[in-house]
Amino acid sequence: MKLNELRDNPGSRLKSKRLGRGIGSGKGKTSGKGVKGQLARTGVSMNGFEGGQMPIYRRLPKRGFWNPFRKEYAPVNLGALEAAIIAGRLDAGQPISEDTLREAGLVRGKLAGVRLLAKGEISRAITITVSGASAAAIEAVQKAGGLVTTTVAKREVAAAEG
After folding, report:
1. What pLDDT is stored for residue 159 in this prediction?
2. pTM value?
3. Where are the beta strands (DSSP E) in the chain?
4. Percent of the chain having pLDDT more than 70?
């Protein structure tokens, strides 16, 4: 096969319908838009309009509350921490901070901080400083001989999660 023999599959590219090109084209004169009115013009904005019937977004009740000041924390599980240490991306002998977790690829995106969670197991003593940690995660790290330091008060983390 040569470059000049390359072709699209038959029917993969449809020709666009040419509007307003005479009576014989089937889409001449008003180009299939009927006559006059808002819908015959360009720049029509009719999203959600149901012909005068009360639109669905007004029929349904408002629900919930969206807090514009909420803080989202990146979750890091103990199992992921252990895997990163085994893979050599983290050094268990050095103190681990949120910046080292970001460099190791365990945390991505711009979030308010990191929350340590207890999914998985940790088998070595580590010293870690994070925004927040679950009680089970703190217990698991201490059981392995390590230390967890949190930088955000418990009340603030609970309010951000709830």
Report:
1. 57
2. 0.57
3. 73-77, 113-117, 127-130, 132-133, 147-150
4. 94
